[in-house]
């Protein structure tokens, strides 16, 4: 894909995630890795914007060291280090979606496990893995998340939100939606079971 197509894709997916309620307010961020003249670049949402309202001129492009390559009048997301660390750890993925979807994030704050359901792929572990809490935007968070995602495509950040990966933005977005639905199903089931007691 060309740079302009990638920027349009970032905007389209940002609006979609907001409309689905997965990135309320100014929460959440997404990125897409691509090659330009043999160099790896990352298109990423800007800092301080609601994904509801970003337009093409707001999307930032950085290199793998975090240097601004395109749109230097905007700051990249405060979670830039997390996105870059994930890409450095995982050569097989090209997209990262970080959401604050309400039900899954509720589980993250309660530190309650979300069951892995069919649809995530092969179920090798019973629960979606947690990443310990570190301040948003910190190098500690970036390192912890990328380490946990070395062998899986989705994690829950304690007291924070969810990070999902994919070969493309559609794949990462579907996984983000799926974990929210999984958390919703688990919450409804628990509520119904509690009413039987």
From TrEMBL:
The entry lists its GO molecular-function terms as: aldehyde-lyase activity; metal ion binding
This protein's record includes keyword rRNA processing:
no
Q: Which UniProt keywords apply?
A: Lyase, Metal-binding
Q: Which domain of life is it from?
A: Archaea
Q: Which residues form a coiled coil?
A: none
Outline the extent of the Class II aldolase/adducin N-terminal domain: 8-187
Question: In Gene Ontology terms, what is a biological process of this protein?
Answer: pentose catabolic process
One term under GO cellular component: cytosol
Cross-referenced SMART domains, in alphabetical order?
Aldolase_II
Q: Does the keyword Lyase apply?
A: yes
- PANTHER family in UniProt: 3-OXO-TETRONATE 4-PHOSPHATE DECARBOXYLASE-RELATED (PTHR22789:SF0), FUCULOSE PHOSPHATE ALDOLASE (PTHR22789)
What is this protein's name?
Class II aldolase/adducin family protein
Q: Which organism is it from?
A: Methanobacterium spitsbergense
């Amino acid at each position: 894909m060309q740079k302009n197509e990638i920027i349009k894709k970032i905007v389209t997916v940002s609006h979609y995630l907001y409309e689905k309620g997965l990135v309320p307010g100014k929460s959440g961020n997404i990125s897409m890795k691509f090659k330009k003249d043999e160099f790896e670049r990352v298109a990423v949402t800007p800092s301080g914007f609601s994904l509801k309202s970003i337009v093409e001129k707001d999307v930032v492009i950085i290199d793998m060291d975090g240097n601004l390559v395109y749109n230097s009048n905007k700051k990249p997301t405060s979670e830039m280090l997390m996105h870059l660390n994930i890409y450095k750890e995982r050569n097989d993925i090209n997209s990262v979606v970080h959401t604050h979807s309400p039900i899954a994030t509720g589980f993250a704050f309660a530190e309650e496990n979300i069951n892995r359901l069919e649809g995530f792929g092969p179920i090798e572990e019973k629960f979606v893995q947690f990443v310990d809490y570190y301040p948003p935007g910190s190098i500690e968070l970036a390192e912890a998340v990328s380490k946990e995602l070395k062998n899986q495509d989705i994690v829950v950040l304690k007291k924070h939100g969810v990070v999902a990966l994919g070969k493309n933005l559609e794949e990462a977005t579907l996984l983000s939606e799926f974990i929210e639905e999984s958390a919703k199903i688990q919450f409804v089931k628990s509520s119904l079971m509690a009413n039987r007691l």
